[in-house]
Write a structure and sequence with these properties.
Order of helices and strands: HHHEEHHHEHHHEEHEEHHHHHHHEEHH
Strand order of the largest sheet: 1-2-3
Strand content: 5-15%
Distance between the termini: 73 Å
Oligomer: single chain
Length: 475
């Protein structure tokens, strides 16, 4: 019997192989059929179509029932100057000026290069110039771009433009932004073209990317949540597009939805975990501290905004109303906490330096020395003890102790601050730290960074000279 069985077994292998091939063919056919249906459905929908999921936020709460509002809290009928004023505020929320301005003397005229793993994308001119801007766009064209990621000529837009989030913004709010952009001074400027590698320069391939990474549709309020929570969700998930920086990417460079808001590296800067995890996120921050950080860029004893986040505060979040900031905080508090493996919060590291200054007196230093470089370049503002100067005043030089950039599990942001400096202008203060990239070599920047993390922050967080060299090239 054993011999007979052994003779039958090899004959079964081709049958199993054929079944596997048949299964694969059937699977591919099913995927292709679904894709064809998706394309047909997507292209058949006109830009003027109204969506049933555009529910007013008043269905989630009962106040002010006499004047219905949309999900953004905007009255259903806003006229003239009020519409433009509302659009200006919403453009601030979306931080449109940050990406669409390369030259401060030409706001919204585009030209800003955005480096991606597949090449460089240059932002377009969105002033009302009829030749180089969006002066000839119809309202339907603008809605389609914001909601579906499709340009005036039917071309697929790249997701450096965050239509993945903007699709959630209501028609009314999109039209308010449109009304504001129409009032801008037309600037005749044609930004340079993108430089993308083949096949990524083929825009039609975005159909496939969208299939896996984009869900078109407006924000739907959750009737089980408060109006404040819904407002925060609408802002964070939509116009403020917080996930674009704070959510890691999948292999297609789409948002990794299983790790929402758990932190990611963008252009060398680490956008930190903003979930309520007490060690890896902001779970040990108070509501007032989170609100202060969004409004001023500083939460003493926690963090000071630098890099892209400093720009966000400067151009966007400092202009938000207290109600909107509170709504954002409310929503962030409700997110599922995600651990990044940290043993303690990044703002709970460090002690003042004790005797580094006296130790160096009369000592001949022949090699690159982090302590010496820190005292020579940094101590004037941050004190040789690392405790900063000016306490918690708006224009204070921040302490390096209990500082997120110094206590983080990677030292990227600290090295980037040394290389590129800090510029943050708010109603409270004009914060400036000079860039030392032109003054210090890569090994000197690495030495200072490693001294600061060892002395004032997380001693396990270090950078190499090669890492500094790569960071130096980042925008």
């Amino acid at each position: 019997m054993m011999k007979n069985t052994s003779r039958v077994q090899p004959a079964a292998l081709p049958v199993q192989s054929m079944r596997r091939r048949s299964f694969r063919v059937a699977t591919l056919a099913a995927i292709f059929a679904l894709f064809a249906l998706y394309v047909a459905w997507h292209e058949a929908r006109g830009p003027g179509e109204r969506h049933n999921d555009e529910l007013p936020i008043t269905q989630a709460h009962a106040d002010d029932a006499s004047q219905p509002s949309n999900a953004a809290g905007t009255p259903a009928a806003v006229a003239g100057g009020d519409l433009v004023k509302r659009g200006e505020y919403l453009a601030r929320v979306g931080d449109c000026v940050a990406c669409h301005t390369a030259d401060k003397s030409r706001p919204f005229a585009g030209g800003l290069p955005i480096n991606t793993p597949v090449g460089t994308i240059v932002t377009p001119n969105i002033t009302p110039d009829p030749d180089t801007g969006i002066g000839q766009w119809s309202d339907a064209d603008f809605l389609r771009a914001m909601h579906e990621g499709i340009g005036k000529g039917g071309e697929r837009l790249y997701p450096a433009f965050p239509y993945v989030e903007y699709t959630k913004v209501t028609d009314q709010d999109v039209m308010a932004i449109r009304a504001y952009l129409k009032t801008l001074t037309p600037i005749h400027y044609a930004p340079p073209g993108n430089t993308l590698k083949f096949p990524f320069n083929q825009r039609w391939l975005m159909v496939f990317w969208n299939l896996f990474n984009f869900n078109e549709g407006r924000f739907v309020p959750d009737p089980k949540q408060s109006a404040e929570w819904n407002r925060g969700a609408y802002l964070v998930e939509g116009l403020a597009h917080c996930e674009e920086c704070h959510t890691p990417r999948n292999f297609m460079q789409g948002l990794k939805t299983s790790s929402r808001f758990s932190g990611a590296v963008q252009a060398g800067w680490h956008a930190y975990n903003i979930t309520p995890d007490k060690n890896s996120g902001v779970g040990n921050w108070s509501d007032d501290e989170l609100a202060a950080y969004l409004s001023t860029g500083a939460a003493p004893g926690r963090a000071n905004a630098a890099g892209p986040m400093a720009e966000v505060v400067t151009d966007s979040t400092q202009y938000l109303t207290q109600e909107d900031v509170g709504s954002i905080v409310k929503y962030l508090r409700s997110l599922p906490p995600i651990s990044g493996g940290e043993s303690r919060p990044r703002n709970q590291w460090g002690n003042p330096a004790a005797d580094d200054v006296t130790t160096l007196r009369g000592t001949t230093v022949n090699a690159v020395n982090g302590a010496q470089l820190f005292i020579a370049n940094c101590a004037t503002c941050h004190n040789w003890t690392g405790q900063g100067i000016g306490a918690s005043a708006p224009g204070a030089y921040p302490s390096l102790i209990h500082n997120s950039a110094v206590g983080a599990s990677d030292a990227n942001n600290l090295a980037m601050v040394i290389l590129h400096g800090v510029t943050r202008t708010t109603k409270q203060a004009d914060v400036l730290m000079p860039a030392f990239g032109t003054e210090l070599t890569d090994d000197q920047v690495a030495a200072i960074t490693n001294y600061v993390t060892k002395q004032f922050g997380n001693p396990q967080s270090t950078v190499t000279v090669d890492q500094v060299a790569r960071l130096r090239t980042q925008q």
